[in-house]
Design brief:
heterodimer, A: mainly alpha, ABC transporter involved in vitamin B12 uptake, BtuC, two-stranded antiparallel sheet, globular, B: alpha/beta, Rossmann fold, 14 strands, disordered N terminus
Chain lengths: 329, 380
């Protein structure tokens, strides 16, 4: 306990950093739940593909520590482009292959859930077997650096060397911490405005509120669902970039634990509620860090899930409770 | 057509994956001798450990050594070759019992090199003991494994009861740390080793933490270490966690010495932690490549790289079993043969005490320098 009090700001800032990543991934769960009433369990893999896209683009562009500011900005910008494109693509692909055929046949929701879990395994294993796949198509010589040890960690060069910028309560806040927290909040504000003000955002809210009336009013439901998946994927891509800048190491199964945490964050804040996902992510990140400080890091996950159970006991709809459809602009 | 495709594709993928596994072992281990002399038992030895998965490097280093021993044997006994059967546990204790059963049910398997890790040893060895199938582990170092009274358990290297104190001694005498932080990964191996270091260093340990395997975000542990003012950190665990841990510590500006043990002695640690790995001290009861120059040359000729962690121990373990086969032993009589074994191997004098522990034990220190793991000598 004393340790937590003494280093309160250190635990807080680092907790917010990882919380920002949870929140961005949680948005994907919440958005899809909002319009489809479906938990997209393969969303963790959407995030994982984003981390690899970010890693590969840095390798491709020859990212290394100690480069100039302009160079670093270019690399980070390319990470965003690659990761958002990859995650967005995977999310849309998922919707096309794993969900749309089921929806067309009016399959019960449980079937979609099974399809989601299956898709998650398939995506993770494809990444885990990427060296076999490249040697199968005869590209292993060209792509060796990208697919080597495909079931092991893959590390990215540290392109932004963490430098302390300012100090709060004895903790040196680094440029990476600031970039991740501020960047994540900025992206979430953008998304919030997109859902609130744009035409497509109105469509998303309309389908979430009442799919049939929305269709009668001329909203193309399939189109809206596709856009929802795309937006969720793009958010996961942004999360992947922040994750790679902060953690710097990924693996084919890196999405699993993070996905469970992000899903927890979404439920914590109130699934279907965008601001709830943001709040849930940050609370979860902080709770994990504080819990680790007080009772030991091995209890990190226990703390997170006990918190979830407690909140659901008293507020079964999550902290902010409202669904996407009911949220008024 | 569509429905057949749906089945055909996963099947083809599965077949491909299996085929790839098969050739991996098969291209090095020669196919079973067709026919052979009437006395030929067509025996196999098993390689039990992580051959895929995040810890695969440690298994493959051993497998390379085992294959080299098989080549030597099969060259001499071309009329009755021994083949290698791989039991890929991915280092996962939950997969170990089923694989053990598979090995036991295959009556041609007369001995096992492995299980490679302590956790899977604990899970699989009771079954091997019951079936009387001898196991010689070239790498599992948890001391308690030898206390179970398993008649089939042999260990071709020092355990953590020697590695732990050696690591403590190195931290005290060479690193000259006065404030040491200790972290473990709650695994059979990592926690066992870290607990030994904790009790050896006593009051010098200023903080403790436990992380989880597969964890990637270590921010809470990092804060604990940096705020404690520790000048050295001992981590009991494996490389998939060691790499992000040290990377995040260095990112947070921690300057102390990172000390780890044999579970991290794996090139992938450096590949992933990159510059953050520099200066890491690794203890290991495995002999450096240059101690056995003949073995080093042979290994290099076959694999185009220097022998790595436990390649030599893997070679020695397999050699003991192969000598047993050459002496006409089968599964039942192999246990006594191994128990009485006393010969010089590439790593040490190969001889076991009553508990199956290696009689001749050395612990070495290694250091990460310029992206390579280099030996800095025996810890005496």
């Amino acid at each position: 306990m004393q340790n937590l009090i003494d280093n309160f700001f250190a635990y807080t800032i680092t907790g917010l950093t990882i919380g920002a990543v949870y929140a961005l991934v949680a948005l994907g769960y919440t958005l899809v739940y909002g319009v489809l009433r479906l938990i997209n369990f393969a969303h963790s893999e959407v995030f994982m593909y984003g981390t690899f896209a970010a890693l590969w683009v840095v390798m491709l562009l020859g990212g290394r520590p100690g480069a100039g500011v302009g160079q670093v900005i270019f690399w980070v910008a390319m990470m965003f482009v690659a990761a958002m494109a990859m995650s967005g693509f995977i999310a849309v692909l998922l919707e096309r292959v794993a969900y749309r055929p089921l929806r067309k046949r009016n399959a019960p929701p449980l079937i979609a859930l099974i399809s989601a879990i299956g898709a998650s395994f398939v995506l993770a294993e494809i990444m885990g077997l990427r060296s076999r796949i490249t040697s199968w198509v005869g590209l292993d010589d060209n792509l060796r650096d990208y697919v080597r040890n495909s079931r092991n960690n893959a590390g990215m060069p540290t392109i932004i060397a963490p430098q302390p910028i300012f100090t709060i309560g004895g903790y040196h806040v680094t440029n990476v911490d600031v970039f991740v927290i501020v960047g994540a909040i900025a992206i979430m504000v953008l998304l919030d405005q997109f859902v609130k003000r744009s035409r497509l955002g109105r469509g998303i809210r309309a389908v979430a509120m009442d799919p049939e009336s929305a269709a009668l009013m001329g909203v193309n439901r399939d189109r809206v669902i596709q856009v929802t998946f795309l937006v969720g994927g793009v958010m996961a891509g942004a999360a992947a970039v922040f994750y790679m800048l902060k953690i710097g190491i990924t693996r084919y199964d890196a999405g699993f634990i993070l996905g469970v945490k992000a899903f927890t964050a979404a439920v914590l804040g109130g699934i279907g509620n965008l601001r709830g996902a943001l709040l849930g992510g940050f609370i979860l990140g902080l709770a994990e860090n504080y819990g680790s400080a007080v009772v030991g890091s091995q209890w990190k996950d226990v703390v997170a899930f006990v918190l979830l159970i407690l909140i659901l006991l008293f507020r079964p709809t999550g902290l902010l409770g409202e669904s996407l459809g009911k949220a008024r602009a | 057509m569509r429905s057949t495709l749906k089945f055909a594709v996963p099947l083809a993928v599965a077949a491909l994956a299996l085929g790839a596994c098969g050739t991996k072992g098969g291209d090095t281990a020669t196919p079973p001798a067709s026919g052979g002399a009437a006395a030929c038992g067509n025996y196999k030895i098993g390689m039990f450990g992580a051959l895929t998965g995040p810890n695969a490097n440690l298994g493959i280093y051993i497998q390379n050594g085992v294959n080299l021993a098989l080549d030597d044997y099969n060259k001499k006994h071309a009329d009755c070759k021994v083949t290698l059967e791989n039991y890929d546990s991915q280092g996962d204790p939950t997969q170990a019992p089923a694989l053990a059963k598979k090995a036991i049910d295959d009556k041609k398997v007369v001995g096992i090199v492995g299980p490679a890790f302590s956790g899977e040893s604990k899970a699989a060895d009771p079954a091997f003991n019951e079936a009387g199938l001898v196991t010689i582990t070239p790498s599992a170092t948890n001391p308690k494994l030898a206390d179970n009274g398993w008649k089939t358990f042999f260990r071709a290297l020092g355990n953590d009861a020697t590695q732990g104190p050696a690591a403590s001694k190195y931290i005290k005498d060479t690193v000259k740390s006065t404030k040491t932080f200790v972290i473990d990964d709650a695994s059979e191996y990592g926690k066992g080793l870290a607990d030994i270091v904790r009790s050896d260093l006593g009051a010098q340990v200023i903080g403790n933490d436990t992380i989880q395997q597969k964890q990637t975000d270590f921010s809470a542990s990092v804060t604990k270490v940096t705020s404690s003012g520790a000048d050295a950190l001992f981590f009991g665990g494996y490389s998939p966690e060691a790499a992000p841990l040290i990377k995040q510590l260095r990112d947070a500006g921690w300057k102390g010495t990172f000390v780890v043990a044999d579970g991290v002695k794996d090139q992938s640690f450096i590949d992933n932690a990159k510059d953050a790995a520099e200066g890491t001290i690794i203890t290991c009861p495995c002999v450096p490549a240059d101690v056995a120059p003949d073995f080093q040359t042979a290994y290099k000729a076959k694999y185009n790289e220097d022998p790595n962690t436990y390649s030599g121990e893997g070679y020695d373990s397999a050699t003991i079993l192969l000598d047993g086969i050459a002496a006409g032993k089968d599964r039942a009589s192999m246990v006594d043969f191994v128990k009485a074994y006393d010969k010089k191997g590439v790593t040490k004098q190969l001889k076991f005490d009553a508990k199956g522990e290696s009689a001749d034990i050395k612990v070495f220190a290694y250091k990460v320098e310029g992206g390579k793991i280099v030996s800095v000598g025996e810890i005496k």
